[in-house]
Amino acid sequence: MRNGSARGSSTPISKRNETMVLRFVTFATACLLCAATSVFAHARLTISDPAEGATLRASPPAVSLTFSEGLEPAFCHVTLAAASGEPVNVDREKVGGDRSTILSASIPKSLVPGRYMVRWNVLSTDGHKTSGTSKFTVAP
């Protein structure tokens, strides 16, 4: 039994093999981290209409929020409030778009000049809840 072939003995790993193993482990770890990032991603707001911080010359007919992930319609809500905190009625909340990524609601009455805040709560199809706000101003 020569050169470490006996049970329980170890053969030193060559530097070249050690480098290859280290590269493989690094590559595999990077792949797993990238996969985990996409699997555990929450739906994030990508576009709001009216846009965040926008000043509009007229009342918008609706608010529309586009997200990075698909949404579960039964668990998605949008509200609108004046700067004073007074709620503004919105109608026909709906989720649509190619991948169910757009939450929208119509505004049945014209908004008076002032600042407004859109508040949203959504549940993405991967089961993660997210919420946030977007503000705009109506100033004819």
Features:
140 residues, alpha+beta, Immunoglobulin-like, five-stranded mixed beta sheet, four-stranded antiparallel beta sheet, 18% helix
Secondary structure layout plus pairing:
Elements: H1 15-39, E1 45-49, E2 54-56, E3 62-67, E4 77-82, E5 87-88, E6 91-96, E7 102-106, E8 114-123, E9 129-138
Fraction in beta strands: 35-45%
If you consult CATH, what is the topology of the largest domain?
Immunoglobulin-like
Q: What characterizes the major β-sheet?
A: 5 strands, mixed
Strand order of the largest sheet: 2-9-8-4-5
Number of strands: 9
**Helical/strand content category:** alpha+beta
The overall number of domains is 2
> What order do the helices and strands follow?
HEEEEEEEEE
CATH architecture title of the largest domain: Sandwich
Average pLDDT taken over every residue: 85
Instruction: Work out the helix count.
Output: 1
Query: Measured on Cα atoms, how large is the radius of gyration?
Result: 27 Å
Q: Please identify the top-level CATH class of the largest domain.
A: Mainly Beta
Helix % is 10-25%
* Terminal-residue CA separation: 93 Å
Low-confidence stretches: 35-39
Description of the molecule:
By secondary structure, the chain is an alpha+beta fold. It folds into two domains: 1-40, no CATH class; 45-138, Immunoglobulin-like. The protein is built from one helix and nine strands, in the order αβββββββββ. The protein has one helix spanning 15-39, and strands spanning 45-49, 54-56, 62-67, 77-82, 87-88, 91-96, 102-106, 114-123, 129-138. Strand 8 and strand 9 (129-138) form a beta hairpin. The model is unreliable at 35-39 (pLDDT under 50).
